[in-house]
Amino acid sequence: MGQRLGLEQNDASLSLLSGSASPLPWPSFAQVYSGHQFGGYTPRLGDGRGLHLGERNGLELFLKGSGPTPYSRGGDGRAVLRSAIREFLASEALHHLGIATTRALAVIGSETPVWRETQETGAITVRVSPSHLRFGHFEYFLYTRQEEKLEALIEDTIQHHFPEVNGEGDPKLAWLRAVVARTAETVADWQAFGFCHGVLNSDNMSILGETFDYGPFAFMNTFNPGYVCNHSDHEGRYAFDQQPGIGLWNLNRLAVTLTPWHDDEGLKAALSDYEPVLIARYLSRMGARLGIEEATAADLPLIGGLLNLMAAAGVDYSNTLRTFAQLDPGSKDTPLHPLLGQQEGFEQWWAQYQARVGNPGTLSHWQAERARANPALILRTHLAQQAIEAAEQGDNGPLARLHRALCRPYDPEPQYDDLRGDAPSWSQQITLSCSS
């Protein structure tokens, strides 16, 4: 990415990416937006700790934690090292899993003291994406009754990021359909891989459908459909099993911004694409993970049955699905049986699964396909925490090692086997909040 942006590993690039170059060689700015946060509308938010450095070669460069902006709302505009590292690791982890996300080019540490619950070390995440536009940008111009600017923003968005809809009879409506589809696919990927975002406010939703603004995110360890990773989310609004519905709820907020030009019927038709796209994507992902060829909606009870067994047994979500890479569907003695065999209904489920999968052909090929669909390594919260604690003491070795491992999640090298096990019991004590 650095090469694409025309950056080299030198002092000039470090000065630019730390925001200390004077003057900055590229135009820099912070943006205003609003958004629905935990269901309530906040009329004015904005880049309170972010600075755009403009666009080069189709990518926008963004500094997160570089200092106060006009939208800091009395805050210091800084980020702490732990949150910068977590975003870096998470965005890289999701990218290499094949899930749409912003990317992190670098983390730049600092000796600047930053106060949160206690005094911490400041840092900047250098974030890269084709666009940093959020649903909240469009909400802001609608609710401040700046329809001309709203229309100009929509048209510019289409021109630069959705040019394919220009040939449609109604480009604005076609644009909404495109955002609906991208969002549905990303949410489906989260559900298939056990990823919980934590704060799905409308201002944290990317119009590109990318996973955006990492805070109290987590991959599930023990499978729990109602898992809440953000300890500030007391009502469980953004629990894991609520993410599909919240995705649609936020898309409804975006659709409202088109009401100056469209009636409810057209907008509802565009939003109606969400569920079938999400289900199709989820079936594609889970079908590949379980070895169900050409999975359809008729396979949802089979997939759901497995998830119910996993929840009842309290087994690790990712590692349990990884066992399918060693599974023989024709056998009665598989790595899945010790994990789920004691659960009521397992034998019935196993018989249904065998009937659905049938003869897989060459077993080694079938298992290799499962290995390519089921990661052996995910970014667990305790792994990130260990890397953070080492970095806070000046040792970036564990961080660099974890990053290298996450770049090959489906086929990690043997020296990373220690990163693949179930989460230790002590990791349950790690708490995550919006400042994470």
Please provide a written account of the structure:
With 436 residues, the chain is α+β, with helices and mostly antiparallel strands. Among the domains are: 11-129; 291-373, no CATH class. It has helices spanning 11-17, 81-97, 135-143, 147-161, 171-193, 243-256, 264-271, 274-290, 300-313, 317-322, 337-340, 346-357, 363-373, 381-392, 397-406, and strands at 35-37, 40-42, 50-56, 59-64, 79-80, 103-115, 119-129, 195-196, 218-219. The strands form three sheets. Strands 3, 4, 5, 6 and 7 form a five-stranded antiparallel beta sheet that branches. Strands 1-2 form a two-stranded antiparallel ribbon. Strands 8-9 form a two-stranded antiparallel sheet. α3 packs parallel to α6, α5 (171-193) runs parallel beside α8 (274-290) and α14 (381-392) packs antiparallel against α15 (397-406).
